[in-house]
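forwarding from the other thread:

> can someone predict this with 3,4-dihydroxyphenylalanine?

sure thing
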Amino acid sequence: MSEIELNLQTEQEKGLQSLAAINSLPELEVWKQSFLGKSSLVMTTFGKMGSFSKEERPLVGKAVNAVKVAFEAAFASKEEVLKRDALLQSMESEKLDVSLPGRAARRGRLHPINLSLREIYRIFGDMGFQVYSSPEVETDDMNFTYLNIPPYHPSRDMWDTFYTEDENVLLRTHTSPGQVRSMREYYPNPVRVILPGACMRYEQLDQSHEIEFMQFELLVVDKGITFADLKGTIEDFTKRMFGPGADTRFRPSHFPFTEPSAELDMACVFCGGSGCGVCHGTGWIELGGCGMVHPRVLQYGGYDPEVYSGFAAGVGIDRTTLLRYHIDDIRYLRNNDIRFLEQF
Ligand code: DAH
């Protein structure tokens, strides 16, 4: 055996021995440099094959190749073992503790006005009413004139509102304009609708007044509708909404679009009727107005007042919400205070 073959054999023993002692990936890299790198015996021997005699060359070639193959195989299996160990170790140290309690997702909820609204829909849905939606930005004609409030009429002052640059376009002050819109759509069929939505008014703000508020309008038009139908419907509603003990009263009143007209009041739930800030000392809270649809309004809607009659009502949804949940200031409803909203 030539000297170089002997050297290669020693190199192989040395290499495999030192590889066996290695137990980290950085150490393995260093090992690779010294036994398979550019200046290792294996690689430099390959580099000088030309300097061996014709007879030596195949023997040396075979020997060096065998060492190289042995090193590469040993390196590959060592690398695999070390990588697997490293992975197991990191899995062990970064273990997920699935028994830790999770972070609860914050759940949204319905605003108290919407809770009331859903209850209102349910109650009137039971009575056969359909929900009709009508625009919040209205024409002057719909908001006033077709409700029997001509341009010169002083009762317009009761509904001071926000006007736009187009003098015939305004923010509706009540849901009543939907009366004419729905009648025109349903004609000549009977009408039994509830019209919910936002209304705007130029108001002095206090515990029970806001410039924006929600209202729903009721409208029934058919042959033979009487004030008894109005009273029965409203009383059924208040009893179902506020409980069988809810005390309501109809107070004679005037609205240009109804004749006769009444104001619908509910006994104040805050003071039990003795008078407080919410009810302005009267013991009663006004829920809305109602009455028999004025013949002229029926006509604007397309119905012949000699044949048809109807009743209408407009009820404050914010007020209803205050009474339902015993909230003593209407301003809570819109100032987005999470401490308030979380209670519903
Ligand atoms: N639109 C009136 C308001 O907002 C309320 C009202 C009164 C509506 C009498 C009606 C009604 O339908 O018949 O002040």
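The two ends are 95 Å apart (CA to CA). thats all i got for now
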